[in-house]
Amino acid sequence: MNEAHDHSHAHDHAPSDEDLALTYEEAKFIALKRLLIEKGLITADAIRARMEIDARGTPHQGARMVAKAWSDPNYKARMLGDAKAAAVELGIPVTEAALVALENTPRLHNMIVCTLCSCYPRSLLGEPPAWYVSKAYRSRAVREPRKVLEEFGLDVPDATEVRVHDSNADLRYIVLPMRPEGSGGLSEQQLADLVTRDCLVGVALPRPPAA
Amino acid sequence: MVTPLEPRFAAGDRVRILDLGKPGHVRTPAYVRGRTGTIERFCGLFENPEERGYGREGRDRIPLYRVHLQQRDLWSGYSGRADDTLEIEIYEHWLAPEETA
Fold it and tell me: What residues contact A81, with CB distance under 8 A and at least 6 apart?
């Protein structure tokens, strides 16, 4: 219940120093966290450290892997064999149990969803975007993936199979998109700049560099 | 439950995903239960989420697979291309050989 300002009266009480009124879920989260700490099941420092790991993740790390795979066929082969080891090779610490790279080809387009919650390679890419966690994406991506992609502005041609990967258990995934036409003369760094977060989830394609 | 040491299935095996009807922290979504597909790969041994989800740790690890399914086998009236596909991770006790299931 938010009773903060749905009343009108002269303000004779002290202003609240909370940032925002807590939602029911936020209050429940804080209560649960305190209880777990009180019972000695987890420490506040362990929670903080976990959040720190997630905050270290950024889509640019995934983009670096893709750019290197585009530039170095041997690296690409290693990435497709074991993406976690390929990340570690670039100095990117991945805390998830396993990471799988899914290669797009002219005949195959991959996209990732977690229908059960919000599984996402956080230590590599950071927190997932709000739409990835939404019930609409989670339910529709498996049932009508082409329509969902179309709403993201991505029309997958009929000649290309769409393969949805439900990231529902222990593995985590990133998409290895196709290198765009017209990117021939670019450095690895410039290539990485073409690869956005949405490309790594499979709802967008890297754009060729502006002429 | 006796945990098999060797994975029961290999890539290419035809399987049916079971509907165990279990409550709790299960990782097999309703839309794939009862459906048939092909083992894409054996992923390794992982702690059973149905135990780990309740803090019961230190148990044997169980085989996990990726199962490859046809969209047309999942949804009647699937609107995309007929051979669009879906892959999902399934723990071994949720799988049976297709013919005996």
Answer: none
Structural domains in chain A, CATH included, are: 24-54 (no CATH), 57-201 (3.90.330.10)
Element housing A55 (H / E): helix A44-56
Side-chain-facing half-sphere of B20: CA atoms under 13 Å: 17
Kindly report the CATH class assigned to B14-97: mainly beta
Share of chain A above pLDDT 70, in %: 92
Domain ranges of chain B: 14-97
Give the residue from A110, A164, A167, A175 with the most B CB atoms within 10 Å of its CB, the best one to mutate.
A164
| Structure ipTM | 0.93
Nearest-angstrom CA–CA distance, A184 and A180: 9
CA separation, residue B57 to residues A168, B48, B89 (Å):
20, 9, 21
- Name chain A contacts of B85, Cβ cutoff 8 Å: 161-164
What residues in A contact B84, CB-CB < 8 Å? 145-146, 161-164
Chain A: closest CA distance from residue B99 (Å): 25
Active site residue A114: yes
Q: Do the chains contact at B89 and A170, CB–CB below 8 Å? A: yes
pLDDT for residue B92: 97
DSSP string, A117-163: S----HHHH-SPPHHHHSHHHHHHHHHSHHHHHHHTT----TTSEEE
Tell whether B40 is within 8 A of chain A (Cβ): no
Using a CB-CB distance cutoff of 8 angstroms, which residues of chain A are in contact with residue B90? 169
* pTM: predicted TM-score of the whole model, two decimal places: 0.88
Task: Check A8, A16, A71, A118 and give the catalytic one.
Answer: A118
